[in-house]
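Rather than argue in generalities, we have chosen a single entry, letters for residues, whole numbers for local backbone shapes, without further comment.
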Amino acid sequence: MSNNNIQLPEDWLEHLSPEFEKPYMVKLKAKLLEDKKNGKKIYPPGSLIFNAFHLTHLKDLRVVLLGQDPYHGPDQAHGLCFSVPLGVIPPPSLKNIFKELKEDLGIIKNPNDGNLENWAKQGVFLLNTSLTVCSGQAMSHKDIGWEQFTDKVISVISEQKEKVIFVLWGSHAQSKIPLINTKHIIIKSPHPSPLSAHRGFFGSKPFSQINQNLEQAIIW
């Protein structure tokens, strides 16, 4: 995985280019190739692994929404945390996000449209801490090197940007708080998963909190 075949916007590549030459990233690429060779299907497709970086350039980034790993069902993952492509029914966590959006801001989303690309294009960086997963196996690529890369990404944002809003749902996302400089804003609550949403995600009003901290509101 050399710089020659990594296509990222220049402002990201300026800070992340050295990562692609490091031993952990070489091992990561070897692991992905091994899984493919063994007949495992990997999500998202290769062209969409870095989709979040292409849709939200570092210079435009205003909000970070941190997920854990991609959806592991067919056609669900497209490189943006919590999001699914148009035409794919939103998974339970995303349905709960939309439910809270309605309760918080009165915005009703189409129940059949879980594509969050519009958020990404307006400066909401939809980052998973692992960027790939094996089909049907949640967290299957958790320990192959992606978190070292995305920890670096979070650190770059923390160092290079001012007053970014980090939205951290659940204990995994909140474990990244030590990487975030105190000049930024952190909004945290339990995860929107059906297993935890009723423990404090519902009623946490993250969207109005985000809007209050932005000079110009995101069009959710």
About this structure: The chain has eight helices and six strands. Helices lie at 10-16, 23-37, 51-55, 92-105, 117-121, 146-160, 171-174, 206-212. The longest strand covers residues 63-67.
